[in-house]
């Protein structure tokens, strides 16, 4: 039981001391100026001790930066690019604001203040959301470690980022883009005089558009993952650029899959990879080094998009979307599309491309109507 004692200070002021024993039977004391506050604290601490929810107030004095560092050490199972992104958020946005704060001093109002500042600074909703989520994860570690009782980030709302419009390319546009991307802009060709073109980059665009592989999966693709006899690509890894290095990591869903390759594309691949060793990457830089997708995208893909007159926001990932659209137009089952694209569930497939299916449904309705009309014209079958 908590005991409340009244006393006088040397200056004659009244103070109220709440004495109690913690879970380890150690004597604790907290002082208040008003009896009502002392009584409220006494009731709370008694209830917390009975429920096993009591928090040692000394733990809450540890600075946020200490907990942020502890949390960063738990990211060993994350992909390098994800870990790098989290670390950047902690260093750039959270430590400057909360680094020296006692962990228990970060309350709901402080989190709301941070979010407001981030939003008014001009950061996009997606960035603000990511910063909020990293703060929540750091503080959740403190909650689970018994340092703070609740997570002050809970209930803090952030506007959802506007979903980038998907661009679906027609086959003729894909072929035009593949042709243009093999022609480097003049300002880069000056420094690489021996290269009058990059046909392998055109092949990269066609491979993305007619297999649906993600950019990272194509960059990580090795010669022995291409089965020319069965016309299939075995997707086992993905590439990610983090801390200035190319990292080979697991696929986005951590699953392996086998993707069919059109016969004509398979012929192109056979000619391109004929001399490679089994463990060689298929796409490499002109100097034979690791293919750096970020540099290639800026130097080759974006200028080619502009030269083709495609929408400014056209991304390499839109080739994957275009592949899905072509499959749907051919009447492919959503389950088949899911397996080819490597989605974690069929729900992801339908959420992403469900709006493309109504046209297919209308086509099926027309075909059923045709069958029905044909049956009416023929009349009932003669009895046997």
Please give a structural write-up.
Helix 2 (64-72) packs antiparallel against helix 3 (80-98), helix 2 (64-72) packs across helix 5 (125-144) and helix 8 packs across helix 12 (317-329). The mean pLDDT is 89. The chain contains 15 helices and 8 strands. It starts with a strand and ends in a 6-residue tail after the last helix. The protein has helices at 35-51, 64-72, 80-98, 108-120, 125-144, 171-181, 186-189, 199-211, 215-219, 263-273, 293-308, 317-329, 334-341, 346-353, 357-378, and strands spanning 3-8, 14-21, 27-32, 226-227, 232-235, 238-242, 245-249, 257-260. With 384 residues, it is mainly alpha-helical. It has 3 domains: 3-54; 61-144, Tyrosine recombinase, N-terminal domain (DNA polymerase, domain 1, Orthogonal Bundle), CATH 1.10.150; 171-314, Intergrase catalytic core (hpI Integrase, Chain A), CATH 1.10.443. The strands form 3 sheets. The protein has a 3-stranded antiparallel β-sheet, covered by helices on one side.
What are the salient characteristics of this protein?
single chain; mainly alpha; DNA polymerase, domain 1; three-stranded antiparallel sheet; 49% helix
């Amino acid at each position: 039981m908590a005991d409340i004692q009244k006393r006088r200070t040397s200056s004659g002021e009244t103070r109220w001391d709440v004495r109690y024993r913690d879970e380890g039977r150690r004597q604790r004391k907290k002082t208040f100026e008003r009896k009502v506050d002392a009584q409220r604290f006494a009731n709370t601490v008694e209830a917390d001790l009975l429920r096993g929810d009591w928090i040692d107030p000394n733990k809450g004095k540890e600075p946020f930066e200490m907990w942020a560092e502890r949390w960063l050490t738990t990211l060993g199972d994350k992909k390098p690019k994800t870990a790098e992104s989290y670390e950047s958020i902690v260093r750039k946005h959270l430590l400057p604001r909360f680094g020296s704060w006692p962990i228990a001093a970060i309350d709901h109002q402080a989190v709301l203040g941070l979010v407001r500042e981030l939003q008014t600074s001009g950061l996009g909703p997606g960035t603000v959301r990511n910063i909020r989520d990293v703060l929540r994860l750091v503080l959740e570690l403190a909650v689970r470690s018994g340092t703070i009782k609740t997570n002050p980030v809970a209930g803090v709302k952030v506007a959802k980022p506007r979903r980038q419009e998907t661009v679906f390319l027609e086959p003729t546009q894909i072929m035009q883009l593949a042709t243009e991307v093999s022609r480097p802009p003049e300002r880069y060709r000056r420094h690489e005089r021996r290269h009058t073109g990059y046909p392998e980059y055109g092949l990269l665009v066609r491979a993305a558009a007619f297999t649906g592989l993600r950019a990272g999966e194509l960059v990580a693709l090795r010669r022995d993952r291409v089965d020319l006899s069965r016309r299939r690509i075995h997707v086992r890894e993905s590439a990610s650029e983090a801390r200035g290095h190319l990292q080979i990591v697991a696929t986005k869903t951590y699953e392996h899959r086998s993707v069919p390759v059109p016969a004509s594309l398979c012929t192109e691949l056979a000619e391109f990879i004929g001399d490679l060793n089994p463990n060689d990457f298929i796409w490499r830089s002109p100097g034979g080094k690791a293919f750096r997708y970020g540099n290639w995208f800026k130097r080759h893909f974006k200028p080619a998009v502009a030269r083709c007159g495609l929408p400014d926001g056209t991304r390499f990932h839109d080739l994957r979307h275009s592949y899905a659209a072509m499959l749907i137009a051919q009447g492919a089952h959503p389950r088949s599309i899911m397996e080819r694209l490597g989605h974690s569930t069929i729900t992801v497939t339908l959420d992403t491309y469900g709006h493309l299916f109504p046209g297919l449904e209308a086509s099926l309705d027309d075909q059923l109507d045709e069958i029905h009309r044909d049956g009416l014209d023929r009349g009932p079958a003669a009895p046997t």
